[in-house]
């Protein structure tokens, strides 16, 4: 019994080491992901997906495999709502296989996934979805609440946005939210904000990318998330964040902030889509697609390129930007 426990512990330790988890001075856990020898990186971004393949989830997965191969991606980002309707029931919920392992089967997608939780994930057993036990079932899976991914030229700041939204606390309706390790809300979100702000201030990365489930700007059914506009956006604007990437609205969007260089990118088209809602927004809308799809992100020291794709793998919208090259020392 003891030997078995020790062996499991060793396995867990090894799987953690494999991810290059390094100690951090701040409160947010920090992961490192190596990038290409030439200093560039590419990734795919998908959100709002886990529906056992239905609502075109399988078609999106197929095209992700194709584009992932073409771009030789380093990793995949999930913007949350990983398992519908109510997250996972436990670590042995077969939804994990039916909606994840058995769907994203392409060779190019067998890379590390970095996931945040969405509001639907909070309606299940959150501790299970975050559990290392799932990594032993499928090693590409990784989901945490708020954390930092250091990818050399870029730092990704993953933020657990569900607890910010007051509605889920006050008017949960028929849904139950798993607030274990979260409640009380005020302390939790104050810590997230403090940790995020100090991590952003210390960041020396070329690109700063914040990932959360909920929208800051959206022209679709959920619109802007007022709690994030009040509490999170000022921190992002004051700390040279380049991109805010989210899901929640089941569509693809690109909106530019009027008051800062931040680009708001929604990649929430992983399965059920076509809500048929469009509400104009005060900020600059570049692109809105109400159907299924995903996004790619390609970064070098001096450039970023974002492309949105539909279920045929057609590139629907491309946006790129350059930064002055770093001067040689
Ligand atoms: C699947 O995708 C096709 C092509 O975009 C679309 O016409 C169809 O309505 C989608 N099906 C569902 C269930 O959303």
Automatic annotation (TrEMBL):
Which of this chain's residues are annotated to bind Fe cation 2?
A: 81, 119, 213, 248
Q: Which domain of life is it from?
A: Eukaryota
Q: Which UniProt keywords apply?
A: Glycoprotein, Hydrolase, Iron, Metal-binding, Secreted, Signal, Zinc
Sample GO molecular function, one term: acid phosphatase activity
Could you say which EC number(s) this protein's record lists? 3.1.3.2
**Record's keyword annotation contains Secreted:** yes
Q: What does the Swiss-Prot or TrEMBL cofactor note state?
A: Binds 2 iron ions per subunit.
Record's Pfam families?
Metallophos
Residues that bind Fe cation 1: 48, 81, 84, 250
Q: Which GO terms describe its cellular component?
A: extracellular region
Q: Which reaction does it catalyse?
A: a phosphate monoester + H2O = an alcohol + phosphate
Q: Where in the cell is it found?
A: Secreted
List, for all copies, the residue spans of the domain called Calcineurin-like phosphoesterase.
44-251
| Cofactor or coenzyme needed | Fe cation
Using the record, list the residue span of the signal peptide; answer none if the entry has no such feature: 1-26
Which SUPFAM superfamilies would you find in this protein's record?
Metallo-dependent phosphatases (SSF56300)
Family annotation (PANTHER family): TARTRATE-RESISTANT ACID PHOSPHATASE TYPE 5
> So what family is this one in?
Belongs to the metallophosphoesterase superfamily. Purple acid phosphatase family.
Protein's name according to its UniProt entry? Purple acid phosphatase
| Organism this protein belongs to | Acorus calamus
């Amino acid at each position: 019994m003891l030997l078995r426990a020790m062996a499991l512990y060793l396995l867990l330790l090894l799987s953690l080491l494999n991810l290059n988890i390094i100690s951090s001075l701040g409160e947010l856990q920090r992961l490192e992901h190596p990038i290409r020898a030439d200093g560039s990186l590419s990734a795919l971004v998908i959100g709002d997906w886990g529906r056992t393949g239905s609502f075109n989830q399988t078609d999106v997965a197929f095209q992700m495999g194709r584009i992932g191969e073409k771009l030789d991606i380093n990793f995949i980002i999930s913007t949350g709502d990983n398992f519908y309707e109510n997250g996972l029931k436990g670590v042995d919920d077969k939804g994990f296989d039916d909606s994840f392992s058995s769907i994203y089967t392409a060779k190019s997608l067998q890379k590390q996934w970095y996931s945040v939780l969405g509001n639907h994930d909070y309606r299940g057993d959150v501790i299970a979805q975050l559990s290392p036990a799932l990594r032993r079932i499928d090693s590409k899976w990784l989901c945490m609440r708020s954390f930092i991914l250091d990818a050399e030229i870029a730092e990704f700041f993953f933020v657990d946005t569900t607890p910010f939204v007051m509605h889920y606390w006050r008017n949960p309706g028929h849904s139950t939210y798993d607030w274990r390790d979260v409640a009380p809300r005020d302390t939790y979100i104050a810590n997230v904000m403090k940790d995020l702000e100090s991590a952003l201030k210390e960041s020396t990365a070329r690109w700063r990318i914040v990932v959360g489930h909920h929208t800051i700007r959206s022209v679709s059914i959920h619109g802007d998330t007022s709690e994030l506009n009040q509490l999170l956006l000022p921190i992002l604007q004051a700390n040279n964040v380049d991109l805010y990437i989210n899901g929640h609205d089941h569509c693809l969007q690109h909106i530019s902030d009027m008051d800062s260089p931040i680009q708001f990118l929604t990649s929430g088209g992983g399965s059920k889509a076509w809500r048929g809602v469009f509400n104009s927004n005060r900020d600059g809308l570049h692109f809105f697609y109400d159907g299924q799809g995903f996004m790619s992100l390609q970064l070098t020291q001096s450039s970023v390129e974002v492309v949105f794709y539909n279920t045929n793998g057609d590139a629907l919208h491309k946006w790129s930007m350059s930064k002055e090259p770093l001067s040689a020392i």
